[in-house]
Design goal:
It is globular, with a radius of gyration of 20 Å. Strand 3 and strand 4 form a beta hairpin. It has an eight-stranded parallel β-barrel with strand order 1-2-7-8-9-10-11-12, surrounded by nine helices. It is an alpha/beta fold and 387 residues long. It contains 17 helices and twelve strands. The model has no long low-confidence stretch (mean pLDDT 96). It has a single domain, classed as TIM Barrel, CATH 3.20.20.210.
Length: 387
């Protein structure tokens, strides 16, 4: 089987020739190491240090207008796919994250109304911006924010995804995605405290806000399908380390209707849709299935997720992605520890199919060597029938 056939069968809860392996890597230090292009990354000092840092600070508005950061982010998506193919992944999470504008040379805002700090990875290169706070703490501020137009957003996403599908889609199974789901987009621009107060005092505003984000996601689903990509990853972190960020009842009441429409539209367009949610989501797994998702990813072991329990609970309804530990096994573990972790995960969730091997998240501490071991041992021990 090829990567497309293998991934498709697993997503349909079937048994392929072997367990597919899924990439969520988005870190410069790893991608350029895989490609042997260590000089390709953008050092943070270029933006913050010396005369170039002063220049970036002075010209940030111009840099935003000419779209320099957007172009660099979009070019990086190609590098991510080239590294995934080189490493031997079967499928790849391709998140569209060209949504930032520089605010001077030390912070950035995104299109949703969040403020971020610009941070460095272990090699001193620009890493994923670190969320600091929301800028839209009241309904009035949210209403005044220049929200993206869904039609224009569709055209942007389609342009990028269609190009990547054309260039890479025959070699690896692509899953489109968009930075920040409905829950994150509703809570983070306001801050969780302000959002909770607004939810109690002005629930109609919250419903209207969620409905707007639904239109953005529906446009993105259509762009993904029209670009020819076979699947979509809906990324929305709803969990803390100890449980959901809010009650399942609130999530279902205020976000469930939109999520059901989003998954329904994806299925109408013939694409699979997988939910990624960090944290302890044990109490949300049945909701994920009820909302219509075809797969679930992250399932962090450090947040109390037991892969065997997840498989038993929703494995007949959703494909299980995960849940290789990045806090130790892939960042500082030995070859033997990686091998043992792969074997354990296969026994817990892969015996009857419907399973895709994946690390829980992208993180700059993950070692390329350990990632290679994860793929190597999945190929070795993940061939069906699994012993």
């Amino acid at each position: 089987m090829n990567s497309h056939e293998r991934t498709t069968i697993a997503l349909n809860l079937g048994v392929p020739d072997r367990v597919p392996v899924f990439s969520c890597t988005e870190e410069q230090n790893q991608i350029y190491e895989i490609l042997g292009e260590k000089d390709g990354a953008i050092p943070l000092s270029l933006i913050q240090g010396g005369w170039t840092g002063k220049l970036f600070k002075l010209t940030a508005p111009l840099t935003n207008r000419i779209g320099w950061l957007t172009r660099e982010t979009e070019k990086f998506m190609s590098k991510k796919l080239e590294s995934d193919i080189a490493l031997g992944y079967d499928c790849s999470w391709l998140m569209y994250s060209a949504i930032f504008n520089l605010k001077g040379n030390r912070q950035a805002t995104d299109i949703w109304g969040k403020l971020y700090d610009l941070v460095a990875d272990p090699d001193g290169n620009v890493d994923t911006p670190m969320y600091r706070q929301g800028l839209l703490t009241t309904p009035e501020l949210w209403e005044a924010w220049p929200h993206p137009d869904p039609d224009k957003f569709y055209k942007t996403i389609y342009r990028v995804f269609a190009d990547l599908q054309k260039r890479y889609g025959q070699r690896i199974y692509l899953m489109g995605s968009l930075f920040s789901g409905l829950w994150e987009s509703a809570t983070q621009p306001m801050g969780l405290t302000a959002f909770s107060v607004t939810l109690r005092r002005n629930p109609d505003f919250v419903r209207r806000m969620v409905k707007y984000y639904e239109t953005i996601y529906l446009a993105t689903i259509h762009a993904t399908a029209d670009a020819g990509m076979p699947a979509f990853v809906y990324s929305d972190d709803m969990g803390h380390k100890t449980g959901p960020q809010t009650s399942p009842r609130v999530l279902d009441e205020f976000f469930g209707p939109s999520l059901r429409r989003i998954t329904g539209e994806a299925h109408k367009r013939g694409i699979k849709i997988i939910i990624h949610s960090c944290g302890n989501v044990n109490l949300l797994l049945d909701l994920f299935a009820d909302w219509g998702f075809d797969g679930v990813h992250s399932l962090e072991p450090t947040a109390g997720i037991d892969l065997a329990v997840v498989k038993k609970q929703v494995g007949k309804k959703m494909c299980i992605f995960g849940n290789m530990d990045i806090s130790h096994v892939l960042s500082e573990g030995t070859r033997e520890e990686v091998e043992a972790a792969v074997k354990s995960m296969l026994q817990a969730a892969a015996l009857d199919g419907g399973f895709i091997m994946a690390m829980t998240n992208s993180h700059n501490a993950v070692k390329v060597e350990n990632t290679r071991w994860m793929i190597e041992y999945t190929h070795r021990y993940g061939t069906y029938p699994i012993k």
